[in-house]
Specification:
The protein folds into 2 domains: about 290 residues, Bira Bifunctional Protein, Domain 2 (BirA Bifunctional Protein, domain 2, 2-Layer Sandwich); about 150 residues, no CATH class. The radius of gyration is 28 Å and the shape is globular. The longest helix has about 35 residues. It starts with a helix and ends in an 18-residue tail after the last helix. About 20% of the residues have low confidence. With about 450 residues, the protein is α+β, with helices and mostly antiparallel strands. Helices cover about 40% and strands about 15% of the residues. The strands form 3 sheets. It has an 8-stranded mixed sheet. The chain has a 3-stranded antiparallel sheet with strand order 2-4-3, with no helix packed on it. Strand 11 and strand 12 form a beta hairpin.
Length: about 450
């Protein structure tokens, strides 16, 4: 991730972890006290307001990979202390930040998988260079890289069973046909050993895998009497072609919670209000900005409605209850209500909505970004609304940060910002279900 950002001319910086005023995210902070200065401080909930001060100061592309602390619940998706990437790019819109997010995540997935993709490349090179024998082209030594051997026995068997045995693949003279279409669904063909991170490292396992691999091809060639170099070369050509397809698919498919996540192609982009209507046919798009209609629907769903909630907060509550868990494939949810986006720029075309997105994969929020609000007067009004919400009982509402307002008065250029939860991204890349599995020391209740 650092390498990708450095290549794209972002500058890594460090900002304070103890803040005079907690800000940059809607979260309850941890409080502490500085004895020498005699002041209360708060552990960082987000570095956003400091990073944007740097953009004001002339650093047009900055990022920080940092530790954040939020005094909230613990679950399979939440830990009070977590790692996060935040970046800001001057003169970028939230549309461009969405494009950046896609490229960054694909780059991370590709880097993680390069180890396994390299072994597929090794298979291709070995298959291209092996001498053709009397039956098949794999000898007893197999395809080895040091102590590591890829197990292809599943894919070989699946290939033979689905594409060759039981089909009319030989002509009247008993020779292999060259004009049949041997294409098939790559996703069904690629074995778990290649789409996930399983590699056979034991010499015994490797030897067994190679023996079965060689035996499977020899049996296949023997069954169809493929003794000529022409026929065996044709088999070899098809196998190499499928290995190449497998190499391409490695970087595009991730298993997670029993689901297959596709990172290839453009990520879906859906407006929040439209996504809510799609999953809640009882309401219309017009109802999405009608507090009364949304409050009635919240009652039907059993969602508590507080007096201070406007239509924007109610729309978010309905989205989190009915839509979020359905977003399995990578999806950007755009155009969030301003009420729940106090630091995002207001839309020029949609009153009440902000130029903001969140990226969801497998029902989990992975990233959050927006075109930054750079109007000091508008930001002051929104901070004041957050203060009123806090006084009304919202513990996660933001404080009024007068120093940040002064920074905006100096001048923040049009800027796009992004925050990515590193722990959840690692969950995606490793295919694990709980955030505890990617943390060395997750927070849990101590033994009494």
């Amino acid at each position: 991730m650092r390498h990708w950002l450095d290549q794209h001319r972002f500058l890594e910086v460090e900002t304070p972890m103890m803040h005079y005023i907690p800000g940059g995210a809607a979260a309850r902070p941890f409080a502490t006290h500085h004895n020498a200065l005699g002041i209360d401080l708060y552990l960082r909930v987000a570095p956003e307001l400091y990073l944007k001060r740097l953009v004001v100061g002339g650093l047009e592309r900055v990022y920080e990979i940092n530790r954040n602390f939020r005094n909230e619940g613990v679950s399979t998706r939440h830990n009070p202390e977590f790692t996060m990437l935040e970046l800001y790019e001057a003169y970028a819109t939230y549309h461009e930040i969405m494009d950046l997010t896609e490229a960054l995540i694909r780059s991370c997935a590709g880097t993680i998988d390069s180890y396994f993709s390299d072994r597929v490349n090794l298979l291709i090179r070995q298959a291209e260079s092996l001498e053709l024998g009397h039956y098949g082209f794999f000898d007893s030594k197999g395809i080895r890289d040091g102590e590591t051997v890829l197990s292809l026995k599943k894919c070989i068997r699946r290939w033979i069973m689905r594409e060759w045995i039981g089909q009319s693949t030989v002509d009247a003279s008993g020779r292999l046909r060259k004009d049949d279409d041997f294409s098939w669904d790559a996703e069904g063909w690629i074995p778990d050993n290649l789409t996930h991170t399983r590699i056979m490292s034991s010499d015994a396992e490797a030897g067994n895998a190679v023996a079965e691999l060689s035996s499977a091809f020899n049996d296949f060639c023997r069954q169809f009497q493929l003794t000529s170099e022409e026929d065996q070369a044709f088999v070899k050509e098809i196998f190499i072609e499928q290995l190449q397809q497998c190499r391409l698919r490695l970087r595009q498919v991730r298993p997670w919670d029993g689901r297959t996540i596709h990172l290839h192609g453009r990520f879906a982009r859906r407006r929040m209000d439209q996504a809510v209507v799609d999953e809640n046919p009882e309401i219309s798009l017009e109802d999405c900005t009608d507090r009364g209609a949304l409050a009635r629907h919240c009652e039907r769903l059993g969602i508590p409605v507080k007096p201070g909630y406007g239509w924007g907060r109610l729309l978010l509550e309905i989205f989190e209850r009915t839509v979020e868990h359905t977003l399995i494939q990578p999806t950007f949810i755009t155009d969030h209500p301003i009420e729940v986006s106090p630091l995002a720029r207001a839309s020029d075309t949609e009153p009440g909505f902000a130029d903001r997105f969140e990226l969801f994969i497998n029902g989990k929020e992975i990233a959050n970004g927006f075109s930054e609000l750079n109007d000091a007067e508008d930001q002051a009004i929104r901070f004041q609304a957050q203060v009123e919400a806090k006084e009304g009982g919202d513990d996660e509402a933001m404080h009024y940060d007068a120093d940040y307002i002064r920074a905006l008065e100096v001048g923040l250029p049009p800027t796009g910002g992004l925050g990515v939860g590193i722990d959840r991204l690692v969950m995606l890349l490793t295919g694990v279900s709980s955030i505890r599995d990617v943390l060395l020391f997750p927070y849990m209740r101590p033994v009494a």
